[in-house]
Design goal:
The chain has an eight-stranded antiparallel beta sheet with strand order 3-2-4-1-10-9-11-14, covered by helices on one side. A six-stranded antiparallel beta sheet has the order 5-6-7-8-12-13, covered by helices on one side. The model has no long low-confidence stretch (mean pLDDT about 95). The chain starts with a strand and ends in an 18-residue tail after the last helix. Helix 7 (about 260-270) runs parallel beside helix 13 (about 405-425), helix 9 runs parallel beside helix 13 (about 405-425) and helix 14 (about 430-450) packs parallel to helix 19. Helix content is about 35%, strand content about 25%. The chain has 19 helices and 26 strands. With about 600 residues, the protein is α/β, with parallel strands linked by helices. Bound molecules: fructose -6-phosphate.
Length: about 600
């Protein structure tokens, strides 16, 4: 998704902007550009392609100046080319603007501006905004006022940054629905859509909320609402480990993040397990435990991989806490006029904490006066800030577009929440202690599976030319089947479907022939016998069979072509182990097919538009 970075200070801006943009590359983009102000002149350079291409161009085309803005664009309106890339400038070439989000009423505004003589160079919604600012600036000559008046006319979402040749000491940024963080350094300020872009420059940050704008001069920062009321902000300290946002020797962020999971799962549990009492401690939701325990229903809402984690959460809580749970796609929830009463607790799950649909679900639930809790990874993200209480994953920055370590941390945190609630209701101390011990053993069990990565790589080699895959599982492994299929399709572009294994006979069985690989997640649990019958059904139709099975189950390997073993664990923790081989399989399949794993086509890390 698009990324924003801006700088005002006493250093050359363009290297800082390029560095920031590189840190935003992981969000996915197709073009990029930067703009600086140098002796009252606006300079812009932008193009389609990678930041490294932009950087190479700048060796020949200098962009000096100590004030500037930079952007990575992920096309929504118009193809990815230099004209449509940001920054966009006005007719006079004085004002430049970068924008994340969508201006919904751009068509009407554009027609009006064109009728007044404004010349457009791109087909983007964003360019409308810079001409609108120009229109007001021509009338009042005050940049801040011009930005404000323009924003008051805009419908839609935005995170923007604006510079102007007439104002060589001023950077303006504003937010409505698209995140903006401000970094406060020594004699310098940075702005960005993601804290990763300013890491390494300062630890002091403050976040804009919706309908706020910041007017940043070289020696001061003023934050107001868009309609010009003063706002007091808290400056927060962030700790950002630069090492953690580099690839750490792996060829892709995705592989690095898969391999990190023994540590990230441990980090999600650290300080949260009470061994003696056989329970968990979750400070973030401590004051909401009563609401959860006495809820008539818990409603999970999320998107994509986080939605799969939510399904696992449903199974866990219903099984161990006996509270009815529903799971809804946030994109459906927000438009469905959901029933939320005071006995419903809504729990949203989001790695980024910025997903537009999930954020809209939070706001809809709050509008209906529901209690809303969040499970997020990114500290200080919009969802983390707007929910009533929540639990952080502590999985560290997830850069790979395909979510891996966030998923296992989400399931870990859901297990902690289940344990805590179950122990406050009917679960015995001895069962609680058993779960704690199993949780503690997860990092070493995950490591053992990861150590077997070479076998999975060999399998991937043999199947990389396939066009379809089916993933089947039952109980806790049904959401894992969905997640395994999602991982494969999003990075290797192989069509894959996940189903509850028993559903196969209601339709998907028609697809099975000798060309169809079928991955069964067939751990030793109460549905094992049933899943063996499903395996036989595929065997009878000559499908290629894979099994993710429990160590010691030699029988299954006589039934399938490839068996990948996982160490035994208890039912509710099984998904944390069974997903690991499926992440590796998707990764190696994509690599063997020559796909760009960290920049999958058409995908962005954080989906901040509808
Ligand atoms: C898949 C993936 C997406 C995200 C989804 C929600 O690998 O990454 O499906 O899970 O876009 O994102 P978050 O969790 O940031 O709300």
């Amino acid at each position: 998704m698009c990324g924003i970075v801006g700088y005002i200070g006493n250093k050359e801006a363009s290297p800082i902007l390029l560095e920031g943009l590189k840190r935003l590359e992981y969000r996915g983009y197709d073009s990029a550009g930067i703009s600086t102000i140098s002796t009252n002149k606006l300079l812009i350079h932008k193009r389609s392609g990678k930041i490294s291409d932009l950087e190479r161009d700048l060796v020949y085309r200098e962009i000096p100046g100590t004030l500037g803005i930079g952007h990575t664009r992920w096309a929504t309106h118009g193809e990815p080319n230099a004209e449509n890339a940001h920054p966009h400038d006005d007719c006079t070439g004085k004002i430049a603007l970068i924008h994340n989000g969508i201006i919904e009423n751009f068509d009407i505004l554009k027609k009006e501006l064109q009728s007044k003589g404004h010349q457009f160079k791109s087909v983007t919604d964003t360019e409308t905004l810079v001409h609108l600012i120009e229109e007001f600036y021509n009338k009042n000559g005050v940049l801040e006022q011009a930005v404000r008046e323009a924003l008051l006319l805009v419908k839609g979402t935005y995170g923007i940054a604006v510079v102007c040749g007439d104002e060589p000491d001023m950077l303006i940024t504003a937010r409505n629905g698209s995140p903006i963080v401000l970094g406060i350094g020594a004699n310098e300020y940075l702005i960005a859509s993601d804290v990763a872009a300013i890491a390494g420059h300062t630890c002091n940050v403050t976040y804009l909320d919706d309908n706020e704008m910041a007017i940043i001069r070289r020696n001061n920062l003023v934050i107001k609402t868009i309609d010009d009321r003063p706002v007091e902000k808290k400056v927060e300290q962030i700790s950002f480990d630069l090492d953690k946002i580099e690839k750490g020797g792996y060829s892709h962020f995705m592989l690095k993040e898969i391999m990190e999971q023994p540590q990230t799962i441990y980090d999600s549990m650290r300080g949260r397990l009470l061994e003696e009492e056989g329970t968990a401690k979750l400070g973030g939701i401590q004051h909401e435990l009563e609401s959860l325990l006495y809820a008539r229903r818990v409603l999970f809402s999320a998107c994509g991989t986080s939605w799969h984690a939510a399904l696992i959460g449903e199974y866990m809580i219903e099984e161990s806490v006996r509270i009815p749970v529903e799971v809804e796609y946030a994109s459906e929830f927000r438009y469905r006029d959901p029933i939320i009463d005071r006995d419903t607790v809504v729990v949203v799950i989001s790695q980024s904490g910025e997903t537009a649909d999930t954020l809209a679900a939070v706001r809809e639930a709050k509008r209906k006066r529901g209690k809303v809790l969040g499970i997020c990874n990114v500290v200080g993200s919009t969802i983390a800030r707007e929910t009533d209480a929540g639990i952080y994953l502590h999985a560290g920055p997830e850069i790979g577009v395909a979510s891996t370590k966030a998923f296992t941390s989400q399931v870990t945190v859901l297990a902690l929440m289940t344990l805590l609630l179950a122990r406050m209701s009917s679960m015995s101390a001895s069962r609680g202690r058993e779960i704690v011990q199993e949780l503690k053993s997860l990092p070493s069990k995950v490591k053992k599976i990861l150590d077997g990565h070479e076998y999975i790589e060999q399998i991937a080699e043999q199947y990389a030319n396939k066009h379809n895959f089916l993933y089947l599982g039952r109980g806790y492994n049904f959401p894992v089947a969905l997640e395994g299929a999602l991982k494969l399709k999003e990075i290797s572009y192989i069509h894959a479907e996940g189903y509850p294994a028993a559903e196969m006979k209601h339709g998907p069985i028609a697809l099975i022939d000798e060309n169809m690989p079928v991955v069964f997640i067939a751990t030793k649990d109460s549905t094992y016998e049933k899943i063996i019958s499903n395996i036989e059904e595929v065997r009878a139709r000559k499908g290629k069979l894979f099994a993710i099975a429990t160590e010691g189950d030699d029988f299954i390997s006589t039934k399938v072509d490839h068996t990948i073993y996982i160490p035994p664990t208890i039912g509710l923790l099984t998904p944390i182990l069974t997903i690991i081989p499926l992440q590796l399989l998707a990764y190696y399949m994509a690599v063997k097919r020559g796909c760009d794993v960290d920049q999958p086509r058409n995908l962005a890390k954080s989906v901040t538009v509808e």
